[in-house]
Structure to design on (151 residues):
């Protein structure tokens, strides 16, 4: 009788081990466009509206826990998205000055922003110290939507 109980206990333990080992592993996806760990700002600014576009909100330049640089729009960020996607640039001034034929080393394309609220832009490579402003540019209307000086 003891051997039957011992046999069933051993069989149950073996079955649990086999079924546990066959469970699917949960895949964890890391979003590399978002900061890892705490975001630490090094420069701050506030958007100044241009051309009646309603642009407003905070912007910060900083790094995450791994030392990767990001540009962060605050939860209070908004602008008029009715004309299409607004493009974000870093600049050495508040004025958008492209030079399509030669490029402009004083202007760096960051990417599009198409939603209000908090947005992160991973800067790879990190932004040069010379960039002091963030510009919101609407290419379809060919006008600036706003700028922020980073201090």
């Amino acid at each position: 009788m003891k051997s039957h109980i011992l046999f069933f206990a051993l069989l149950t333990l073996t079955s649990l081990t086999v079924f546990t080992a066959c469970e699917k592993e949960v895949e964890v996806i890391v979003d590399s466009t978002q900061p890892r760990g705490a975001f630490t700002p090094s420069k701050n600014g506030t958007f100044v509206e241009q051309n009646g576009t309603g642009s407003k909100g905070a912007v910060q330049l900083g790094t995450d826990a791994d030392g990767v640089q990001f540009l962060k729009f605050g939860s209070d960020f908004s602008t008029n998205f009715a004309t299409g996607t607004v493009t974000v640039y870093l600049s050495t001034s508040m004025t958008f000055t492209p030079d399509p034929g030669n490029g402009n080393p004083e202007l760096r394309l960051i990417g599009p922003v198409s939603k209000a609220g908090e947005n992160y832009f991973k800067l790879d490579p990190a932004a040069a110290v010379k960039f002091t402003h963030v510009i919101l540019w609407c290419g379809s209307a060919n006008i600036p939507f706003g700028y922020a000086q980073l201090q």
About this structure: Strands lie at 40-46, 48-49, 58-63, 69-73, 86-91, 107-113, 119-122, 133-138, 143-149. DSSP finds one helix and nine strands in the chain. Residues 40-149 form one domain. Helices lie at 2-21.
